[in-house]
Write a structure and sequence with these properties.
alpha+beta, 14% helix
Length: 250
């Protein structure tokens, strides 16, 4: 009985040795992918890759559904880094503003040595229009005469009238001696055909025949008054000569 049992065990062991299942050997790849071409080959559905310098079109939806999409070369999907230059701003102080000097105001001109006449003391005088009674109040003017040495009337000098009146420019010349109603050295200017108001906008000046000033500019006013429409301005030598005023009678 023991022999049968031992024999049976030996047979069982032999059977078990014959039924050993071989374990297959698992091989792992030892190659390392190191180039873009190899990566492209693995990504390609067909197992082949063709790198081209020409630009490949992107696959469409139809290509993806039909399985005909081609691989995109790695050199196209890898963005190229472009060097950028960042501008550097260096703050600078602005130049100081240029100061333009303000032009100096002209200094008052000194009285020329040729000034030998001045306005007679008490002038200008205002009176009714007694020398042109036919015009009466329909007249406004200025007149007088120029007196030289010892108060003698002086002829052939120029009296200039200038300025503005009623926003209009006034510029006239008269020779002394041309209006004897004021005296032998008389002059006269008619300003308007009615009394007018003005406030120091008119002036008179005596010059010689070569336009050399012999007096300062004498400014005067006019009034809208029939009793003040004749202005009398006499010029006398420096120092003052004897007063010579024409007789005015109504």
């Amino acid at each position: 009985m023991k022999k049968r049992t031992s024999y049976f065990l030996i047979i069982l062991l032999l059977l078990l040795q014959g039924c050993v299942i071989p374990i297959p050997e698992i091989l792992f790849p030892t190659e390392t992918i190191t180039t873009p071409e190899e990566v492209s080959t693995l990504l390609s559905p067909t197992g082949t890759a063709s790198l081209s310098s020409e630009e490949s079109p992107l696959p469409t939806d139809q290509d993806i559904e039909s399985g005909t999409a081609t691989s995109i070369p790695m050199e196209e999907i890898i963005p190229t880094q472009t060097a950028s230059h960042t501008a550097t701003f260096t703050p600078t102080n602005p130049p100081p503003p240029t100061m333009t000097p303000r032009p100096a105001l002209p200094s008052p001109s000194p009285t020329p040595d040729t000034i030998i006449f001045r306005i007679q003391q008490g002038g200008p005088a205002y009176a009714p229009n007694v020398f042109h009674q036919e015009s009466g109040c329909n007249w406004t003017g200025v007149g007088g005469q120029v007196l030289g040495e010892n108060g003698a009337p002086t002829q052939n000098l120029v009296v200039e009238l200038g300025g503005t009146l009623m926003s209009g420019k006034v510029s006239m010349l008269k020779l002394t001696g041309t209006s004897p109603i004021y005296g032998e050295g008389g002059y006269e200017f008619m300003l308007a055909d009615r009394p007018l108001n003005s406030d120091g906008t008119l002036w008179l000046q005596v010059t010689d025949l070569e336009n050399t000033p012999l007096s300062e500019k004498i400014y005067f006013s006019t009034y809208e008054d029939c009793n003040l429409n004749m202005i009398i301005i006499n010029f006398v030598l420096e120092p003052a000569s004897e007063v010579f005023i024409p007789l005015i009678m109504k």
